[in-house]
Amino acid sequence: MKTLVVAEHDNISLKPATLNAVAAAQVLGGDIDILVVGGDCTGAAAAAAAIPGITKVLCADNAAYSHQLAENVALLIADVASDYANILAPATTMGKNTMPRVAALLDVAQISDIISVESADTFTRPIYAGNVIATIQSSDTKKVITVRTTAFDGVAEEGGSAAIEHVDAVHDAGVSTFIGEEVAVSDRPELTAASVVISGGRGMQNGDNFKLLEGIADKLGAAIGASRAAVDAGFVPNDYQVGQTGKIVAPDLYIAVGISGAIQHLAGMKDSKVIVAINKDEDAPIFQVADYGLVADLFVALPEFEAAL
Amino acid sequence: MKVLVAVKRVVDYNVKVRAKADGSDVELNNVKMAINPFCEIAVEEAVRLKEAGTVTEIVVVSVGEKACQEQIRTALALGADRGIHVEVEGRPEPLEIAKLLQGVVSKEAPQIVILGKQSIDGDNNQTGQMLGALTGMPQGTFASEIKVDGDTLNVTREVDGGLQTLALSLPAIVTTDLRLNEPRYASLPNIMKAKKKPLDVTSPAELDVEIASHITQLSVAPPPERAAGIKVDDVAQLIDKLRNEAKVIS
Description:
Chain A is of the alpha/beta class. Chain A has helices spanning 17-28, 42-49, 70-80, 93-106, 211-220, 228-232, 263-269, 298-308; strands at residues 2-6, 31-38, 56-61, 86-90, 110-114, 116-119, 122-127, 132-138, 143-147, 163-166, 176-183, 196-200, 223-226, 253-257, 274-279, 292-295.
């Protein structure tokens, strides 16, 4: 049984989410290959080859794959899929965008967002915004799976020396073109990779008040997140959103400020090691999951907190 | 230009869904059902395209049991022109729904298909992308803005770390993210008018799709409970606990 892990990368380097997907592949057992699809992606391929325990790295390096457009990448993955029993990708926006397309091309189901591997064909995954965990069994001989990265500790980055094999097949569906991107430039760590996250909710009252979180984030080396309520209210962009419909995080320390604790938010952060909640409503559900709760006005508590760090 | 919008009947987002005591399934008896929130955003976007004069007809489709005609009527009240109900028993999987939608697409030949990015029951986030693969259409998933420009659709997408803009050749598929728009409420006169709008019922057989099952749900369980912690008195005590007890800050 062989498993193919589709790497998450920016052509130059691998994203840590790849390491979590490899960890899930290791639970499945058998040989693991990594597929790096991109344009001028030799850097990412070399990084993939350095992951210990990888049999080989498939590198599809072509201008048609530069921006990893789902239409082209899915055709390629389906093309190389014949050798594999399992095809895994992290459940990032990239994995979520591409893998269902792969599954449909192969006429199999996709198993989304697994949080555990129970056996070769049985997995658990959250449904209903994380209110329920379903155990599901797949009858497909070829399984296309996305992996919730926070549920699997990433494997080591260095120590391996897998062979890199070039894949020459070029699939260009010719129906989509990359126009541009606006990547939020920040000196802070990426939300899903940060060891400390501080998030604001509706209690922040407006976008300007998120500045109160910035000073603390800078002192703690933290990423800044937000609840869906704060995003819906237009305080911050959607890529701040932590929750079932946003990003799933599991840092060492998660600080929820002015967040009531709707289930949809809890689904995105309740695997954090230590949770702190600051909220003036002592009955807020967030306190039921917080290790340390502070009932206080955030506009008083945040400046105090920053000063004390 | 014709737009096809797919909508799903799901448990209302305000309902806290629980696993049944025997773990066989979730408790869905007597719970309030509604149109999936992301599908509501899809309907709204189609209506806005029509109001802008870009689109001439909005067809809304739902796959499911007879009761999902309620959600089709809701979409009609919001501004869709006619409905198609693909009647299927039970809970078809995303791949099967995508195949049925493919059947509807080949009959209706829409220029744009808009779907929600995920439904809040199964949380799969698959159907739009699968429909893309089956029809060969390009996809703009997790859209926060769409613009029609001749025979091209420009889609701005919510991706990890920011926004990405793609140009897709029509016909194309869009799946909606939260910030695409804020859906309106249906007015009473429009709810009344929606009752008279055409709603056709079709079946997998008529669409030449054989429903298969790839996934069996073995059991469901509540997520592991996180033990509640303690309340601290003030910021000083909080800092002390984080530094000396949890040891997560230095």
